[in-house]
């Protein structure tokens, strides 16, 4: 019996569906398709030069990922993220990313560090001048490199899937993306990685995430200088209890 093989037509449809998915998602990510905007299969098929079947497959995938919604009344429309969902993204990043940065400081190869340093130097001048797209590119590359270098496949999968949501949140922030101050945070993070200082890398990553979250909530037109400093985390009960015992003993 001859082995079953995928027909050229089926393979082509899969390729067109994948390309359509990437293009539609890209438009959602950079807000060419805004939250609440209706999406028409017919219009998308005409714009992308494909049939309706690949568009339907792409939209089903995006619906599964939570980027679009379908209702009998409104049809297919861009869903985006709610405030509650954005807060969930922030909380998950705050739990995982500092620990991952600490691991990466211990495990990142010299070649990976050199690649990050080259990227920082290539983008640095333009970011310092307020070039937003270059900041997004460097920030994305830095986070991906850290996730990979940490060497934990489960956490890597979670955070990579989270990056699309982080990207969308960055582009939908009310304030500007604060590229110049964030550049300093990336510089500090890179220095901690290069010195193999896991504790420092975790601290810098935590500060970076906190400042990003605080800046997102500023009113429209706010500047970087108006962003409040991140709040220091409250000491845990485990750390606070010995301190109280020592105080009682001293008294």
Model description:
This protein is mostly helical and 251 residues long. The protein contains 10 helices and 2 strands. The protein has helices at 8-29, 41-48, 52-64, 83-107, 110-128, 132-150, 153-172, 179-194, 198-216, 237-250, and strands at 68-71, 75-78. The protein has a two-stranded antiparallel sheet with strand order 1-2. The longest helix is centred in the middle third of the chain and has 25 residues, at 83-107. It is elongated. It starts with 7 loop residues before the first helix and ends with a helix.
Keywords:
single chain; 251 residues; mainly alpha; Arc Repressor Mutant, subunit A; two-stranded antiparallel ribbon; 10 helices; 2 strands; elongated; disordered C terminus
Rounded average pLDDT: 82
Supply the number of structural domains: 2
**At CATH's second level, what is the architecture of the largest domain?**
Up-down Bundle
Radius of gyration: 22 Å
User: How many strands?
Assistant: 2
CATH 4th-level superfamily of the largest domain:
GntR ligand-binding domain-like
The end-to-end span amounts to: 88 Å
Number of helices, where a helix is a run of at least 4 consecutive DSSP H or I residues: 10
| Backbone shape | elongated
Under the CATH scheme, which class of the largest domain?
Answer: Mainly Alpha
What's the oligomerization state? single chain
Q: Kindly report the CATH topology of the largest domain.
A: Four Helix Bundle (Hemerythrin (Met), subunit A)
**Low-confidence runs (pLDDT<50, min 5 residues)?**
218-251
Category from helices, strands and their pairing: mainly alpha
Question: What proportion of the residues form beta strands (DSSP E)?
Answer: under 5%
Q: Estimate the helix proportion, in percent.
A: 55-70%
Give the strand order, joined by hyphens, for the main sheet. Answer: 1-2
Main sheet specs = 2 strands, antiparallel
